[in-house]
From TrEMBL, chain A:
CDD domains: CBS_pair_AcuB_like. Pfam families: CBS, TTHA0829-like_ACT. It comes from Heliophilum fasciatum. It comes from the Bacteria. This is Acetoin utilization protein AcuB. Coiled coil: none annotated. The lineage of its organism: Bacteria, Bacillati, Bacillota, Clostridia, Eubacteriales. InterPro entries: ACT-like_dom_sf, ACT_dom, CBS_dom, CBS_dom_sf, Diverse_CBS-Domain.
Automatic annotation (TrEMBL), chain B:
The keyword Cell cycle does not apply. The keyword Transcription does not apply. Residues 22-319 form the Histone deacetylase domain. GO terms for molecular function: histone deacetylase activity. The lineage of its organism: Bacteria, Bacillati, Bacillota, Clostridia, Eubacteriales. This is Acetoin utilization protein AcuC. Pfam families: Hist_deacetyl. It comes from the Bacteria. Pathway: Ketone degradation; acetoin degradation. CDD domains: HDAC_AcuC_like. Keywords: Acetoin catabolism. PANTHER family: HISTONE DEACETYLASE HDAC1, HISTONE DEACETYLASE HDAC1-RELATED. One of its GO terms (biological process) is epigenetic regulation of gene expression.
Amino acid sequence: MLVEEIMERNIHYVGPEASIWDTLMLSNEKRVRHVPIVEDGKLLGIVSDRDLRDVSPSTLVDGDTLLLRSTKVKEIMHTNLITVHPLDAMEDAARMIYDHRIGCLPVVQEDHLVGMVTTSDLLHAMVDVMGVSQPGSYIEIEVPDQPGALLEVATIVKEQNTNIISLYITPGKREGYRIIVLRVATWDPRAIIDRIGQAGYTLLFPVCFLNQGGVK
Amino acid sequence: MIKRPRLIYSDAFKSYEFAPDHPFHPLRIELAMDMIRYCNWLKDDQIVPPEPCTREDLLTVHPTGFVDAVHAASTTEVNPLTLRMYGLGTDDTPVFPGMDDAARLVVGATLQGAKMIMEGQTDHVFQIAGGLHHAHRHRASGFCIYNDAAVAIAYLQRQHGLRVAYIDTDAHHGDGVQSIFYDDPSVLTISIHETGRYLFPGTGNVEERGRFDGYGFSVNLPLEAYTEDDSFLELYEQSVGALLEAFQPDFLITQNGVDAHHLDPLTHLCLTTRSYVQIPRLAHQWAHKYCKGRWLAIGGGGYDHWRVVSRAWPIVWAEMNEINDYGPIPEAWMQKWQSQSPVDLPPNILDGEDDFAPMPRRAIITDKNRTTLQRVMRDAQKLVAERHTNE
């Protein structure tokens, strides 16, 4: 999945001449943690809600907001920016957020800000990829890390005329193995589970000794 | 006059059969009925034959388009795309000849049970073929065509203005009944089921609590896979009792799916008959405490026909009749069925204490379920009680 498919296009931004106060209000009102500073469509900088709070008076003292109202946001914005392109892959965006320990990536195309990707957007996309938004019968299989295992498992599912809702493969818990996590569109996955067992793969879920009934 | 419990049954229930190898097979009912008879727990005058419901009865819950489609598909070829739209024609819920009549008979029987109780013929009814809790207003799902419990609840609301508590202990979430009454504060639905992470219908999270006026009147307790008796019963006893106290129902309906048993091939819960004794026992007590005894028990899932359904449903009926010495499985039943069974049949109605090895990770599973209970019960009673008194 590409960044352009998961990014937020409706961006809440301010101009460089905006006051810190206005920026803080925008952040509160729109419930966004990162506010980009944009001029003529071009990204100049970014401030986070933490930056804005750092320069705000403590709520424990009678603070004066005058300074917040008179200081321009461009005075405190970060200009050393890490951005992504709409055609970057979702996993690359995740990697950048992780490596740089940041919460959000502005998406820049032809020097213009076209979207924002936050950690929540990435998590949401991941939940979609895992198929959790749709029901399915869950099957977890340990397979040798060799060509052909996935084909064999998928063939078994197809032979039962069943749809796959979602599928992902994780590194195995043991050296030389991988784990295939499948969600299949049937209430009764017994035939699939039995045949996967017969093919010699280890079921991690459901634990097969529980289902002593087998296919009747 | 002693009002003896009634059991709704006739061989006509066998018509609800999707396919010979389909897990929701009427053999389940036959095995359980036979067990009840051979145990000598049923007097002839306790049996009431089911009657089909009318089209008007169905329309109290289901829209005309869906009812017409089910009717049409029972007799003629219907466009597969139309069927899919109504949740029919899938491998799980295929179309079969006579489907409309078979489904109406199940709904009729459950409705009949509610009427018999309201007309004062009896206080307790077991509708062994009922419990089609996955049927939604607009579509069939998960072996369920029409929603029998919902039609009975609609009758109790409209004809008698009653507040109904619906308790669902099937291993699958009672999604159909929940969704049909999702914004209705006169129906309290409580479903205890295996978490939707691993199986259909995937719903039944703690956060599903109803909406609008009905907020707080849908309660869900999703259990971890491999949950055993003690943890299950802890959640059942501590949630349902408190919620009924807050809700003060007039009528109790219990859905008695028995697919949460250790041996069930379709789910991953690990109950034994200990739970299946305790579930109806407490329901029975609650019915007397809150509902003047009005208790309609319906069936549900259960896919180990030979060893689980054949014993767990007779226990529901025994409880209704205050029979509690279960003993060995009658020799005659054993002789009749053992040769046809693909598995060895257990010797007694109840599982032995050591029949099943303890599950690995029992402690952490128990703790997770307890956390779920706490999350649900933090304000569940308050929500129900507040709305109740505000009416």
